[in-house]
Design goal:
heterodimer; A: alpha/beta; Immunoglobulin-like; four-stranded antiparallel sheet; disordered N terminus; B: mainly alpha; globular
Chain lengths: ~525, ~525
C-alpha cells in the first residue's frame, strides 16, 4: 500500500488543489513527484546506533559560542578551539569526526541538540530502559519499536515468519535482542552476530569435549541452529548482497557491522530496523589523552563512529540505496558539563544526537546549549528536545505511520519535528543529475542556503507558502553550469513550511523547507 | 565401588542436587557444601508424606473446594460423574507438578517419576485409583522393591491398566504376566530359542497369567463407595499347579488363592537378574545411559549385590550410588538431558518461582505446567507405553530423545514467557522470581560473582572464561562492573521503588533469557 508523503497530509489537499501556475507548470502536478521518496515506506530501513555508557555530547558537538565558559568548566579536557571542525559559525565537531563533517556538508547529517527527557535519571540501566521503551513509565516493558510493530503485526510471534514476512522485522547486531523491539508477546528483533554465518545462534561456545555432556550440548546446539527460522533468509541476503565502498576499515568494529547491514539490505532482506550497540562511552576517567586532548578513549570512539558512518553512507550511495536508509545515534544520557579530576566526565543529562542519510533534513535542530560561567555542582545539559518526539517523528516521516497511531504508542503529547522531509543527494550525484536542490540548514531558525547545480541559463528563485502564494523572489539571474550555494533571505518569514521554486526556461524544481 | 573422597565443592554438591531433585537454589547448594556429602545424601533420602491433592475445579461436585477428594464418592448422575472425574484428574496433574515445586530438597519426586516410568501406567482407571497408585510409588520409592512389585501387582490402577481385572480361569489374559517379567522385574534378555528370552520363556508368561487370575476391581467411579478396591474371587482363580521354566528351576507354583501371586514373585526375585535389571534402570535414570563393561563390573554389579544383600531394599542402593566415586566422576557430569519437567522446574525452583495465587490460582498454574510438559512429550500419567518414556531405554539416543526441533522451540518459548511477559494463567501471571533469585546469590552487587553463582546453579560443568564474560556483559549491559554495583546498591537502598528495581529486573531478564536457552542448561 503506497501512502502519500506526510508532507502532503500536512498541507491540506484543498489548498494544493488550487493550481499554482508558473510558466505553465502546475504545482500540484510537480509536487507529487518531488515530495515522494524514491521508494515507498515499506522499503525503508532505519539504523540505530546506540552509544552505550552515556556519551559526552559536549566533547562531540561543540557549542563554539560557549567556548569560554566551557573552558572554565572543563579545562582539563576541552579541545583547543582551532582544532574543531566547523559545522556552522557557532557549532563544531570533534576533530576526529571528519567523516561526519563531510556528511553534514553534503546534506546527509542532522544534528539535534539537547536531546533528553524530563526529570532525567542518571542510572545507566534505568535511563537505557527509558530510551529503549520510549517511555518514562517504569512499568512500561515494551520497546517503542516493539509497540509500533505490535500495532502492525498483532499476531507476532505466533504467525511469523510466513510467506509474506520471511525476514525478521528487526535485527540486533550482536548477541542480545534489543529492548527497543520488545513487543507484548515477543521481541521483534533477531540477534545476528555474523549474517554470513547464521547457522550459529549461540552466544556462547559449545565444545564437544568428548564426554557424554559434550555430545549432548553439541547435539542441542545443532538442533537450536536448525530451528533458526530467519537464519536462511539472512545469510541468503548477505550472500546475494554487495558492498562497494573502499572506505570501511576492517579493524573498526562498527564499520564491520554497518558493512554487514549494507550487504543484507542490498541482498534484499526486508528487515526494517537494524540496531547496533557500541560500548565504552562511560568515560569517568581518561576520556581524553592528557597530552593531546583531541586524542584518547572518547576520541577513538567518535572516530570509529564517524569513519564507519561515512563509509556506510558512501557504500549506500554506490549501491543506489541511499534513499532507502536513514540512521540515528543515541545514548542513554550525556555527561556533566564540568569535567572531573580524572580527565573524564560523570553521568549527566541531555546530549546531541545525529540523524544521517540522504533523506534527513540537513542541518542543526535546536539551539546551542547555554553554558554559564558558574554552574551547579553536577549540572548536566538541560533537555530541550524530548527524544520521544524524535522517535515519533521518525515513525511519521520515515515509516509513514499515521499520526493517530503514533500518538497511541507514546504517553506524552507528541510534538513533531521535521526530521526526514526529503531526500537530498551529494555533490557527486548533483553533477550527474539535472538539478536536485537542497536547502540547508533545514529546519532553519534564520536564513537558509539553497544548493543546486545550474545548467548555464537564466534562473528565478521564488519562496512560496503552502498555499502556493509567492512571498519572496530572492534571486533572478544567470547561473553557470556548476554547483551554486545561494543564500536566501528567509529570516523574516514566520515559522512554517515553505518551498523554494527554482524556475528556468526548461526546468522547474521545488524544494521544501521549514522555518522555525 | 569406592566411596567418593574427592573435593566437595559447589560443583559436586550441585551435581548431586541436579540429579536427585527438580532444582536447587544457590543457597541450597551452599548448604549442601557445608553439610558435606554424607549428610546431604542422607537428608535427600528421607521422603516425607505428601499432602493429598485438593479439589479446586468447579467440575468437582462432591467435596468442597480446598478439600481432598481421594477418598470421596463420585456423583451418581452420569454427566456430573464425568465432570467430577475431569476435575479430579486436573487436580491430580496439578498435584504432581506442585510436588516438584517444593523448597525442601528430597529425592521423593525424582524417585516417584522413576517408578512411574518403570511401571508405565496410563491412567485408564479413575482419578482416585491413579492417585493411590502414584502415592504407593512415591511413599515406597526407597522401600522394598519386591514388596512394591507385589503391591503394584494387585493395585486397582494396574489391574485395570494391564487387564489383570479381567484375567480369570475361563479366559486367561497374559498382558500383566508378560510385562511383570519383561519390564517390571527380571527383564527380557536376548532370545536364545523360540520363546526363550534368556531370563524367562513363554511358558512362564502363560503360567504367570494363570497364577494371577482371580482379581477384580470394584467401585470404579462409584457413587456409594469411597475407594476402588481389589477383590480376590476364588471362583475366578485357576487352581491348577503351574510349572515354571528352567530359568526358575522348573519350580511348581501350587494353588494358594489370594497369596499365590506373592509366592510367584518371591520365585522371580530369587533370580539375580532381577537386581541386575532394576539397578541398570536406576543407573540409567540417575547417572548415565551408557553401561560400559567397566560400569557393569564396577557399578551395576556392586549395586545389585547391595540390593540382594539388603533383601531388595532400595534405600541402601541409592545411598551407595549417590556417595560413590563413580557418581561424581567428571565423565558422567551433564550426561543426562533434562526431561521437560526437569527443564521447567529447573528454571523455576532455583529461582524460587513459586505461584502464590491462592488455592485455585496455584492449582491452575500447576496444571498449566503439567500441560506444557505434555506438549514437550512428558504427560506424567500418560506414558507413551507401558515401557515408559523412550528417553530411558531407547538406544542409542536415550535422553537426546527429549529434544527435537519442535521441543526445543517449546522449551525456549516457556523460558521467554517466564522471563519476560509471564505465563498468563487465568487472571494470574506466573513470572520468574528474578529479583528474589538475584538477592539470594552470594554477592548480588558483584557482577562476576553473580555470573559464577548462576553458572554453578544451572550448568553441570564450568563454562569458559570468555563465555562468562559474554554473560557478564549481558548483565551489566556492557558497562564496567562498578556500574552494576551502583545500580544494585541503589535498588537495595530503595527495594520497592520501581525506578530502581525495574532496571535490575530488565538486566536479569536479558541474562536469564540467555542462560536458560543455552545448551548447557538442558543437561543435568
Amino acid at each position: 500500500m503506497m501512502k502519500r508523503r506526510d508532507f502532503l497530509r500536512r498541507a491540506s489537499l484543498a489548498s494544493l488543489s488550487l493550481p499554482f501556475v508558473s510558466n505553465g507548470f502546475s504545482m500540484q502536478a510537480i509536487s507529487k513527484e518531488l515530495f515522494d521518496f524514491s521508494k515507498n515506506a515499506e522499503d525503508r530501513v532505519l539504523v540505530l546506533i546506540r552509544m552505550n555508557g552515556g556519551n559526552d555530547g559536549l566533547n562531540m558537538v561543540f557549542p563554539v559560542d560557549q567556548y569560554a565558559n566551557l573552558m572554565i568548566q572543563r579545562p582539563n579536557i576541552l579541545i583547543p578551539q582551532n582544532q574543531l571542525l566547523n559545522l556552522s559559525s557557532d557549532l563544531a565537531l570533534h576533530p576526529k569526526m571528519t567523516g561526519m563533517q563531510d556528511l553534514f556538508n553534503n546534506g546527509k547529517l542532522t544534528v539535534i541538540q539537547n536531546v533528553g527527557y524530563p526529570e532525567p535519571n542518571r542510572s545507566h540501566f534505568r535511563s537505557t530502559d527509558i530510551w529503549s521503551t520510549g517511555s518514562l513509565d517504569v512499568n512500561q516493558t515494551s520497546g517503542w519499536l516493539g509497540r509500533y510493530f505490535d500495532s502492525n503485526y498483532p499476531n507476532f510471534p505466533a504467525d511469523y515468519p510466513n510467506a509474506n514476512f520471511p525476514d525478521p522485522f528487526a535485527i540486533s547486531m550482536g548477541s542480545e535482542v534489543s529492548t527497543t523491539c520488545q513487543g507484548l508477546m515477543g521481541n521483534f528483533s533477531h540477534a545476528v552476530n555474523d549474517p554470513f554465518n547464521t547457522s550459529n545462534l549461540l552466544l556462547t561456545s559449545v565444545t564437544n569435549d568428548g564426554t557424554y555432556y559434550g555430545s549432548h550440548i553439541e547435539y542441542i546446539s545443532t538442533l537450536i541452529n536448525q530451528t533458526n527460522e530467519y537464519g536462511t533468509s539472512i545469510s541468503a541476503s548477505a550472500n546475494a548482497g554487495n558492498s562497494l565502498s573502499t572506505m570501511y576499515d576492517p579493524t573498526n568494529p562498527l564499520a564491520v557491522q554497518l558493512k554487514y547491514i549494507a550487504q543484507m539490505i542490498s541482498g534484499g532482506l526486508k528487515t526494517k530496523v537494524y540496531i547496533i550497540n557500541i560500548g565504552g562511552f562511560d568515560t569517568h576517567d581518561s576520556q581524553v589523552d592528557q597530552t593531546n586532548l583531541a586524542e584518547g578513549n572518547h576520541a577513538n570512539l567518535l572516530k570509529m563512529i564517524s569513519d564507519a558512518v561515512a563509509a556506510f553512507q558512501n557504500d549506500l550511495q554506490l549501491l543506489g540505496l541511499e534513499q532507502r536508509v536513514a540512521g540515528m545515534t543515541f545514548s542513554e544520557f550525556g555527561r556533566q558539563i564540568a569535567s572531573n579530576g580524572s580527565f573524564g566526565t560523570d553521568h549527566g543529562d541531555a546530549a546531541p544526537i545525529f540523524l544521517f542519510g540522504s533523506c534527513v533534513n540537513t542541518g542543526i535542530i535546536g539551539p546551542n546549549p547555554t553554558i554559564d560561567n558558574q554552574i551547579n555542582e553536577q549540572a548536566g545539559v538541560p533537555m530541550q528536545i524530548d527524544f520521544r518526539n524524535i522517535y515519533a517523528s521518525i515513525l511519521r516521516d520515515w515509516f509513514e505511520a499515521p499520526e493517530a497511531s503514533i500518538q497511541a504508542l507514546f504517553e506524552q503529547n507528541i510534538t513533531y519535528l521535521d526530521v526526514l522531509s526529503g531526500c537530498s543527494v551529494g555533490i557527486a550525484e548533483l553533477e550527474e543529475q539535472k538539478l536536485n536542490p537542497i536547502i540547508y540548514p533545514n529546519p532553519a531558525p534564520s536564513n537558509v542556503t539553497l544548493r543546486f547545480v545550474g545548467k548555464g541559463e537564466q534562473y528565478q528563485i521564488f519562496i512560496i507558502d503552502e498555499q502556493g502564494k509567492v512571498l519572496l523572489k530572492p534571486f533572478e539571474g544567470f547561473l553557470a553550469a556548476q554547483q551554486h550555494d545561494l543564500p536566501l533571505e528567509t529570516s523574516k518569514l514566520p515559522s512554517g513550511h515553505y518551498y523554494a521554486l527554482i524556475s528556468a526556461t526548461n526546468s522547474r524544481e521545488l524544494v521544501a523547507f521549514q522555518k522555525i | 565401588m569406592q566411596v567418593y573422597t574427592g573435593p566437595w565443592t559447589k560443583a559436586e554438591a550441585a551435581h548431586l542436587l541436579r540429579r536427585t531433585t527438580f532444582g536447587a537454589t544457590n543457597q541450597q547448594i551452599l548448604t549442601a557444601v557445608s553439610n558435606g556429602m554424607s549428610a546431604t545424601v542422607s537428608s535427600l533420602l528421607q521422603i516425607p508424606v505428601s499432602d493429598e491433592p485438593l479439589a479446586y475445579d468447579a467440575g468437582e461436585t462432591i467435596v468442597a473446594q480446598g478439600t481432598s477428594w481421594v477418598n470421596a464418592v463420585y456423583p451418581a448422575n452420569q454427566t456430573q460423574n464425568q465432570q467430577t472425574e475431569n476435575a479430579r484428574f486436573k487436580s491430580l496433574g496439578a498435584w504432581i507438578a506442585k510436588n516438584m515445586n517444593q523448597e525442601q530438597l528430597c529425592i521423593a519426586e525424582k524417585m516417584a517419576f522413576f517408578w512411574q516410568n518403570h511401571f508405565g501406567v496410563t491412567a485408564t482407571a479413575e482419578a482416585r485409583a491413579m492417585y493411590h497408585f502414584l502415592n504407593l510409588l512415591r511413599q515406597n520409592a526407597l522401600g522394598n522393591f519386591k514388596q512394591l512389585i507385589k503391591d503394584v501387582t494387585v493395585d486397582p490402577a494396574m489391574l485395570l491398566f494391564l487387564n489383570g481385572a479381567t484375567n480369570n480361569v475361563y479366559s486367561p489374559n497374559e498382558n500383566y504376566s508378560r510385562e511383570l517379567l519383561e519390564l517390571f522385574s527380571i527383564g527380557k534378555g536376548n532370545q536364545i530359542a523360540t520363546g526363550d528370552y534368556s531370563t524367562y520363556t513363554e511358558t512362564d508368561v502363560a503360567a504367570g497369567a494363570k497364577i494371577l487370575t482371580g482379581f477384580t476391581v470394584n467401585g470404579i467411579r462409584s457413587s456409594t463407595v469411597t475407594q476402588a478396591t481389589t477383590t480376590f474371587m476364588p471362583l475366578l482363580h485357576d487352581n491348577t499347579a503351574k510349572t515354571l521354566s528352567y530359568h526358575f528351576n522348573n519350580q511348581v507354583i501350587t494353588a494358594a488363592g489370594a497369596t499365590e501371586y506373592a509366592n510367584y514373585i518371591d520365585v522371580i526375585f530369587s533370580q539375580p537378574h532381577v537386581a541386575q535389571f532394576i539397578c541398570s534402570k536406576i543407573y540409567r535414570y540417575f547417572v548415565n545411559y551408557d553401561i560400559t563393561p567397566s560400569v557393569q563390573t564396577n557399578v551395576i554389579d556392586a549395586m545389585a549385590q547391595t540390593l540382594i544383600t539388603n533383601n531388595y531394599e532400595i534405600l541402601p542402593v541409592m545411598q551407595q550410588l549417590l556417595t560413590s566415586d563413580h557418581f561424581y566422576d567428571m565423565s558422567v557430569r551433564g550426561a543426562i538431558i533434562r526431561n521437560p519437567l526437569e527443564m521447567i522446574m529447573g528454571a523455576m525452583n532455583p529461582t524460587q518461582t513459586i505461584p502464590n495465587f491462592g488455592l485455585v490460582g496455584d492449582y491452575q498454574t500447576y496444571i498449566s505446567i503439567y500441560y506444557v510438559a505434555d506438549t514437550m512429550g512428558q504427560s506424567y500419567i500418560v506414558p507413551p507405553s507401558v515401557a515408559g518414556w523412550l528417553a530411558y531405554y531407547q538406544a542409542p539416543a536415550y535422553s537426546k530423545l527429549w529434544i527435537n526441533s519442535t521441543y526445543i522451540k517449546k522449551r525456549f518459548d516457556i523460558v521467554s514467557a517466564l522471563v519476560y511477559t509471564g505465563v498468563p494463567i487465568g487472571t494470574n501471571v506466573l513470572k520468574m522470581n528474578l529479583l528474589g533469585f538475584l538477592n539470594g546469590l552470594s554477592d548480588p552487587s558483584n557482577a562476576p560473582q553473580v555470573i559464577d553463582d548462576i553458572c554453578d546453579v544451572f550448568f553441570p560443568k564450568a563454562i569458559s572464561l570468555t563465555d562468562k564474560l559474554t554473560l557478564k556483559a549481558i548483565l551489566t549491559g556492557g558497562l564496567p562492573d562498578f556500574e552494576w554495583t551502583i545500580q544494585y546498591n541503589d535498588y537495595q537502598a530503595n527495594p520497592t521503588n520501581t525506578t530502581y528495581y525495574t532496571p535490575v529486573t530488565q538486566r536479569m531478564q536479558a541474562l536469564m533469557n540467555v542462560i536458560l536457552k543455552m545448551p548447557q542448561f538442558q543437561t543435568i
